[in-house]
Structure formats: structure tokens, C-alpha cells
Amino acid sequence: xxxxxxxxxxxxxxxxxxxxxxxxxxxxxxxxxxxxxxxxxxxxxxxxxxxxxxxxxxxxxxxxxxxxxxxxxxxxxxxxxxxxxxxxxxxxxxxxxxxxxxxxxxxxxxxxxxxxxxxxxxxxxxxxxxxxxxxxxxxxxxxxxxxxxxxxxxxxxxxxxxxxxxxxxxxxxxxxxxxxxxxxxxxxxxxxxxxxxxxxxxxxxxxxxxxxxxxxxxxxxxxxxxxxxxxxxxxxxxxxxxxxxxxxxxxxxxxxxxxxxxxxxxxxxxxxxxxxxxxxxxxxxxxxxxxxxxxxxxxxxxxxxxxxxx
Length: 310
Known about the structure:
Elements: E1 16-19, E2 22-27, E3 30-35, E4 38-42, E5 49-52, E6 56-58, H1 60-68, E7 72-76, E8 83-86, H2 95-105, H3 107-119, H4 132-154, H5 173-195, H6 212-218, H7 226-236, H8 243-258, H9 260-271, E9 289-291, E10 295-297
Helix pairs in contact: 2-3, 3-4, 4-7, 5-6, 5-7, 5-8, 5-9, 7-8
């Protein structure tokens, strides 16, 4: 059984498995997936995240085994492309969440983190000394050029990016495809963010939404995944084709080729300037208490014997 106080090792890729159309039962201290093809034992203790797609059912005993082995269970859409709910995983330490919250609430660190989220997109350019506003403008140009290049490459007619949820049917096919593709990426990023122990709502560029940080993370990868996937899907769309299915297939291929899950783990480590894997403090088995004089005090003890001063 895993040490549940430890954080996932962010230097490695997220160890995950996607299942659909299966009954999942307990098998000793592990679990087994029962499908038409037979029974497949799953070494749940070696995994960080189990993605449960359409057509899955899980017994209570199996869920207990999953949680006791420190694996997070995520209920999702086809191939992780929607995020519906999650059960507790191995990230019982709040270390990543605290790092994120401190960076988000401190204005100077917030600015530095937001800049790094832009800088990571311009790895071949010197961005030192640029303001947040300048980086935001550079990002706008980068995305606009990505749209133009995808349109030129695929021959799909392109005017501009336009999204109005209340007027979905009035959007042209490419804007609908982009919105669908982005929604799939949001689901995948949401699953990764939660699995790694971060808050989806504490964003650095996007603010005020429950998924602000998810949008921040997804924007790191749109140019290389959802934009080309959407344009290719529209180019190949013919009468009678299922547009959403075609977009899912395209996105799935791009997400896999780009190794999105493992990159999110590495990129967030750099963006939030976390400690290296060897330096990480996995935390005491008992949580600490906040203290206004000592920062933290030891938990798991009774302080009634201490002298109380005013």
C-alpha cells in the first residue's frame, strides 16, 4: 500500500489508466476490470489516477480498494475528454494547493507566476524585462497566427474567433469545432489539475471562475492541439458525418502525441517554482496547526497544559 502522505512525484508522468464499458470489482487488495474480452487485473497500487469513462460501473469494495491504495478515481467522458467528478486520491498532502494559494494571493508572486505561464509559450524568445501587458499582446499575436496557419494549411475559411454560448447554432462550423475541441482539453486539464492536488479555481491569468486555473493550463497547449485538430476536423467533415465524434478522434490523437498529461505535471512544477523531487517535504502524518507567531505548530497534541498569555 502507498504512503498516502506523499505527493505524486511530479518529475514522472502521471500514471493513469482509462477504462470504459467495464464492471470494476475488488480483487484481493487490487481491482479487476470485467469486459466482454475477459477479466483484466489492475495493479492499482502502482497508479495515480483511474479514469472511468462511459459504460463503467464500480462496486463499493472496488472504490474502497482504489482509495486505500492512494489512487484517484475520476468519472469522465470518452477518453478523459470531460470531467464529471473525482474521488480522493493519493494527494492527501495539501502541499501543492498551499504553494498555488500562496502564489495566487501574493501580488508579487502572482505576477511572476502569470509571466511564467506566458514565458513557457515563448521558449525560443527572450522575454526578460517584458511587462505582463506586453506578454499578453505577444500571446494574442501567436494565437492569431496559429489560426491563420491552420486555415491556410487546411483550406478552411476563417474570419475570426467568435464564441457565444447562447447563440451556438449561429456560429460557423470552425468556431463550433474550436469550442468543442477546447471543451475536451479543459476536461483533460481538469483531471490533471485535480490529480496533482491543485485547485481548479485559483487562476493566475484567468480569474473569478471555478475553473480559472484549468483555463490557464489549457491555454498552454491549445496552439499545438485543439486549433489544428478543429481545423482538420472541419476540413474532413462531410454530409452525414458526426462532427463531435470526428473532433473527439482528432483531439485524442493530438493529446496523445503531445503527451499532455505528463507535460502538465512538469510544466506546473516549473511555473509554480516548486521544490525538486528530492527536496519535497511529504509532510508529517499529522497535519500542522496555523500559528501567528511561529507560522505553524505541531498537530496531534493537546495544548491545554501550555500557559495562556494575553
